[in-house]
Amino acid sequence: GVCRKLKDGMRIRGDINICLMGDPGVAKSQLLKHVASIAPRGVYTTGKGSSGVGLTAAVTKDNITGELNLEGGALVLADRGICAIDEFDKMDEADRTAIHEVMEQQTVSIAKAGIVATLNARAAVLAAANPLYSRYNRRKSLSENINLPNSLLSRFDLMFLILDTPDMDKDMALARHVTFVHQNEGLEEKQEDESDSDDDQSTSSAMQSDFDAEKGIVTLRLL
């Protein structure tokens, strides 16, 4: 995870790009959100709701002054951090090609509307994707199950395969847990509030106050 710079000036990235490929319902999205929340600099986005411009950089025009501004996308904002991209396989092919430079060179080159700039995007990419047939087909090879081009797969350093193995007992236990959580949502907070109110009432009933009219002092004494 350490960036190296060779004597000839060539820079080798140190950030590791990881792809999570697995069946639906194995908590890939929750894992990405948690990683983005605990990282010192983390950005979470989805592939279906993001375009190539939104991931890299965009040129915008000010409505008042008419000046052109360069705004960084999710990968630029996640510089020196982690960019989590969910639903990576749902992205359009044109949008996926926009992040090829980011994943290897860790820069974003822009040449639009007279603006020529190079932005740093030294971020580690954590992507989550589903197999080609929604679920992983064990009868087919790994390359046949992955719906991503080889030019993009070569930029991932690690790829983890997360499978949902059917098990009647575990699935029933998980279904019971989910239904129990939804049925008893807010029940514990309500019980804690009732216990707190009972404690306050018992405390107030166990104390009496004596008022000294001459000195104007209120004295509390326990019963």
- How many strand units? 13
Order of helices and strands: EEEHEHEEHEHHEEEHHEHHEE
Amount of helix: 25-40%
Taking all residues together, what is the mean pLDDT? 80
**How big a fraction of the residues is strand?**
25-35%
Main beta sheet: strand number and arrangement?
Answer: 5 strands, parallel
Strands side by side in the biggest sheet: 4-7-10-3-11
Which term fits the overall shape? Answer: globular
Structural class: alpha/beta
How would you describe this protein?
The protein has 9 helices and 13 strands. The protein has helices spanning 28-38, 52-55, 74-77, 93-97, 100-104, 142-145, 150-153, 168-183, 187-205, and strands at residues 4-5, 11-12, 18-22, 42-46, 57-61, 68-72, 82-86, 107-112, 115-120, 124-129, 158-162, 207-212, 217-222. The strands form 5 sheets. The chain has a 5-stranded parallel beta sheet with strand order 4-7-10-3-11. A two-stranded antiparallel sheet has the order 1-2. Strands 5-6 form a two-stranded antiparallel ribbon. The longest helix is centred in the C-terminal third of the chain and has 19 residues, at 187-205. It is globular, with a radius of gyration of 28 Å. The relative contact order is 0.16. Residues 205-209 and 211-218 have low confidence and may be disordered.
